[in-house]
Amino acid sequence: MTMNRLAPPAPPHPWRDPLLMAGLLLLVIAGLAGLAAATGWQATRDQILRLGAMQVAILLALSVLNYLMRALRWHVFGRCAGLPPGLIRDLRHYLGGFLMSVTPGRVGELVRIRWIRRETGLTLERSAPLFLMDRAGDLVAMGLLLAGALALSTSGIAGAAPLALIAVLAALALTRARLLTALVTRLYRVIGLWPRLFGRLRAMARTLAQFSHSGVLAGAVALGLIGWAAEGYAFHLLLVWMGAETGLWTAMAIFTFATLAGGLTGAPGGLGGAEAAMIALLTLEGVPPETSVAATAVIRVTTLWFAVGIGAMVFPLAEKLSKRNRHAVENR
């Protein structure tokens, strides 16, 4: 079997992203600590201690539901791209990639493409669009969820409706094979350099057409909606347990808006931006500051950082198995 030797390049400084992540995390922790100190450490601590083990378990279970729904969506897209059957393999790749969720732009999650190439021999041109479809799937699901929550909520969020529309339109534009192929061609004509690179980019853009089946797209959107709605519902439960009188749809709108807004900052995992937006919106809803800070800290730990923790556990296994299975693929 002829193998495509082109693989996503390893970062020239493997320590750079972890250091950046650690620095941003420290800034976020410092910011939350400052807010907690301003509102009273004891009050914030008391709010967090209102949660029992069972309540924390429910929050984590809803996050797991989100991860599994999105991993199933990855599996569906993988079959469209030509991956051989392997649900467990696809789940392993997707969950292991969560370790890289807090890299800038989440580009570290491209490690999944490396694992796919090792274990299946699928060419980069056919597998790389999976990353784009995954990002687009999240944008569509969160945009639709935000729009629906706003429509059903008794409260409004300034700028939320345009953000929901932008998320959906961006996802649709970035997954249109003809549009991206035309853009790559036009860019090459302007630059006039690196014909092999642009040829590969055109091939990747054309590959997006294989995901255009309406049934596949509808199923992918449904899986994304279930997943993100589960985390939005977890945020609502958390606020109720902390004594905040925030409605279900308002809580979902705040959670989804803050997550999308944090992503727009370009910071790894939306660090800083998501937390600031969440606390500000909760405060505008009349939630006491100590509750806003405590709820934001808890929901970020049980969603973003819980995912990173799962990724840290699965990543070594995914890396080990991909290296072991690579030899079998190369000897076909």
In short:
It is built from 14 helices and no strands.
Please give the radius of gyration in angstroms: 21 Å
Major β-sheet profile: none
Overall geometry comes to: globular
SSE string = HHHHHHHHHHHHHH
What does this structure look like?
This protein has 332 residues and is an all-alpha fold. It has one domain (51-91, 123-330). Helix content is 76%, strand content 0%. The chain is built from 14 helices and no strands. It has helices at 16-39, 41-49, 53-81, 87-96, 111-120, 124-127, 129-152, 160-174, 177-191, 195-207, 214-241, 248-264, 273-284, 289-330. The chain starts with 15 loop residues before the first helix and ends with a helix.
Helix/strand layout:
Layout (H helix, E strand, L loop, with lengths): L15 H24 L1 H9 L3 H29 L5 H10 L14 H10 L3 H4 L1 H24 L7 H15 L2 H15 L3 H13 L6 H28 L6 H17 L8 H12 L4 H42 L2
